[in-house]
Amino acid sequence: MIFDIQQEGRRLGSRGGPTVGLAALWAILAILASQSAGAQQQQQPQKPAPPAATAQRPPLPAQAPARPANGINTGVNNNALGFMNPLLAPGRGATNTAPAAQQQRPANNLLPNRMNPALQNGARAPNNNLTRPAAYVNQPTGHAVHSQTFVGHPGPAGSIETKNRNGDIVRKAADGSVIDVHSPRNGMLIHHSLDGNRKVIVERPDRSRVVASSRGIQYVQHPYTFGGHSYDHRTFYVQGHLFHQLYRPYNYGGTNLDVYATSRYYEPKFYQWATTPMRTPEPFTWGYTTNPPPWFAYYKGYFTPEPTYTSPLLWLTDFLFASSLSTHYATAQPAADAQPADTSRGITPEVKQMVADEVGRQVKQESTEAQENAQNKEPEAGASSVVAEISDRQTHVFVVDSDLDLVDPTGRRCMISEGDVVQVVGGPQSSTGTASAVVLASKGGVECERAAQVDIALTDLQEMQNHMRETIDQGMANTKAGKSSNSVTPAFATSVPPPDANAAQEIDQQQQLAAAADG
C-alpha cells in the first residue's frame, strides 16, 4: 500500500511548523464531506499506523480526497500504483533531517490567443438560455466594464460605480443590486457573488490581510521575516480550528500577491521519478469509487478517475481533481434539491492531459527550488509565481480553487468554482491586473460556458497555482516513493510562529463590519 489512511483529525495543529495544523484541516473537512450526507461507512486500512518517527506525515482519511492548505484529504487506500522504482524502494535511506515537528507537510509575453484543440469540433457548449437560471438569463448583454477601483475584476454590462457620502465606492448591476463595496477608510472590499456568498477582503498597510466569507475557507495573514527575507504567514480558520501555511510575497503592477512556499524538499531522484512515465500501465482503484461518498456521487458525471496510470503525474492529476471537488462539496455544499454537475461539461481526457502537463511543470519547479535550497539560495520574490509562469509563451492550465465571479463575452456575470479548469491564453496585464483565459471545464448552472473567454484576476490565478502546488505536494508525500525518499525542511520553515490565536476574532469582526456596511 502507498498511503497512510489512519488517525484522521487526531493531531489538531497543536505542534509547531507551518504545515502541522493543515493536515488536521484536511482530516476535518474529509469527515465533513462524508458525514454530511451520512456516508460514514469507510474501508478499514490494511496497513498499521506508522511508527512514531514517521507519524508526522499527514494522514489521509479513508475515501475522502486530499487537499492541502484549504482542502480535503483523498481516500486512496487500495492497490499499489507501480511506485516500486528501485531508486526509491521503501527502506532505502528514508531519513528526514528536519525537526520532528517540522516534518509534516500540508497537506508575459502574450501566449498564442487561440482556442485549445480540446475545444474544437463543436465542443463549445450551446448557450441555451432556456436551461440557464434566471439570475443569468435576465442580465443585460454588452461588454465588461473595467474598473480602477476593483482592479482585476471587471463589472458586467450596464454596471455602474457611485461614491457614497462616507467615501465608500459601490458598484451595482444594471438592475440596481449591489455587487461590490470598497471602503478606502479601512481597506475593506465586500463582494456579493452570484451564488449568494458574501466575501470580505481587508488589506492593511502593514501587508496584513483578512479574508472572511459566508461560504468557503477564511484566513488571516500577517508578515513574517526570516533571515532577512519576507514571508506571509497565513492562518486558516475552519470549524473552530486554526491551521497555518507560509507564502512568499511579491508585487506586480502595484498588486500584492503571495506564492506558495513549500515546507519540505525531496532529493533529486524523487522528482525524476515523479516526472518519468512508467514502462507499463499500472491499475489503481480509488476508495471513493468502490464506496462513493456524497461528493463523488454528486460529481461523478463531471469527473471520473482513471482505472490505470502510465505516469505518477496522471495519478497526481486525479488526486488534484478529487481533492478540489470534495473540498467544494464540503465547504459550499449544494442545496438538497440541487442537480448534479452537468455531464456535458465534464473533464475530458484532453483537458485532463493538459492538467497533467501543468502538474509536471510544477513538480519540476519544485525540483529547481530544492536544488537552490541545497545551495542555501533563497528564490527571488515572484520567481515561481503565476506571473512568471504565464510569461513564458507556453500554454498553462489551472484547476480553480474557489468560487469566482467573472464576466463572459456577452458581458453577463458567470461563475467558475473549485474543480473547474481554465487555460490562460494571454500574458499578465499590469494595467488591468488580469490575464485572458478560456474555460475548459465547468459544472453548469450559472457557471461560465465551456470555451468562454474571460479575464481572470492575477490574484485569483495565483491562488489557483498555490492550490495546485499544495495539493500536488500532499499527493507526493503520500506515495511510497515520497515516504521513502530523503527530504529536508528549508530553514525558513523551522521557526515559524504558531497559528494566529486571534484569527477567529479578526474574521468575526470583519464580518460584522461588512454586515453593517451593507446596511
What is this entry, summarized?
By secondary structure, the protein is α+β, with helices and mostly antiparallel strands. It has helices at residues 20-35, 134-137, 268-274, 287-290, 294-299, 312-331, 349-374, 386-389, 458-477, 480-484, 503-518; strands spanning 160-163, 169-172, 178-183, 188-192, 198-203, 209-213, 218-226, 229-238, 241-252, 255-260, 265-266, 282-283, 308-309, 396-399, 404-407, 413-416, 421-424, 434-441, 453-457, 487-488.
C-alpha end-to-end distance: 55 Å
Annotation, overall tally of beta strands: 20
Low-confidence stretches: 1-24, 30-131
How confident is the prediction overall: mean pLDDT? 77
Largest sheet: 10 strands, antiparallel
The fraction of residues in strands falls at 15-25%
Count of discrete alpha- or pi-helical segments spanning 4 or more residues: 11
Outline type? globular
Identify the strand order in the major beta sheet: 1-2-3-4-5-6-7-8-9-10
Label the structural class.
alpha+beta
Q: Mind telling me the C-alpha Rg?
A: 22 Å
Into which percent range does the helicity of residues fall? Answer: 10-25%
